Amino acid sequence: MLAVARPDLSITLVEPLARRTAFLSEAVIALGLESTVTVVRGRAEDVVDGTPAGADVVTARAVAPLDRLAGWCLPLARTGGRLLALKGSSAAEEVEAHRAVIADLGGGSPVIQLCGSGLIDPPTTVVEIVKERNVVPSGSRPSGRAAPGRGAGGKAGGRDSGRGRSRRG
Q: Are 36 and 10 contacting, i.e. CB atoms less than 8 angstroms apart?
């Protein structure tokens, strides 16, 4: 856990499932991290109001295409903050396919980093996106254009647990 390695950081873990939230809360207590780690039960898009200054770094596992991850996670970051999305070997293709959507969401040009080369096989692929600007909330988008991860009817689609974890530092 990052909080163990970096006790100087303030970290918020966002998890929608009650059983995982309970586990994370128990782990935080068992590790004595209550002063630096907060566990929030909810989805990333539901906790945006809970991060008034925005996070310096938002991390997310590869549980959705990059456009949806950016739509969920970039609003949690402050301007100048970063989204670090752990992705698979198809990261380069996803970056190219979703570059325009990421820009529309206020993100800069994605950069692909290979982490752990020479230590783990395969290395972890991380897509880093700097939030360059705030954008109009998705509920205010012009009609006919659904927000990432939402169908035309506005219902959430393809949601998976575990995505949208954030940390503030």
A: yes
pLDDT single digits (tens) 67-88: 999 999 999 999 999 999 999 8
The parent domain of residue 158 ranges over 2-167
Tens digits of residue pLDDT in 98-153: 999 999 999 999 999 999 999 999 899 999 999 999 886 655 443 333 343 333 33
Can you tell me the distance from the alpha carbon of 80 to that of 15, in angstroms, rounded to the nearest whole number? 24
Residues 6+ apart with CB under 8 A from 59: 83, 84, 85, 86, 165, 166, 167
How many structural domains is the chain composed of? 1
Full-model pTM = 0.74
CB 121 within 8 A of CB 100: no
At 125, which CATH number? 3.40.50.150
**Helical spans, DSSP H, in 44-116:** 66-73, 91-104
Distance (Å, rounded) from C-alpha 83 to C-alpha 67? Answer: 12
Q: How many CB atoms lie within 10 A of CB 148?
A: 20
Token look-up 């970051």 returns 77
- How do strand 166-167 and strand 55-60 relate by DSSP bridges? antiparallel
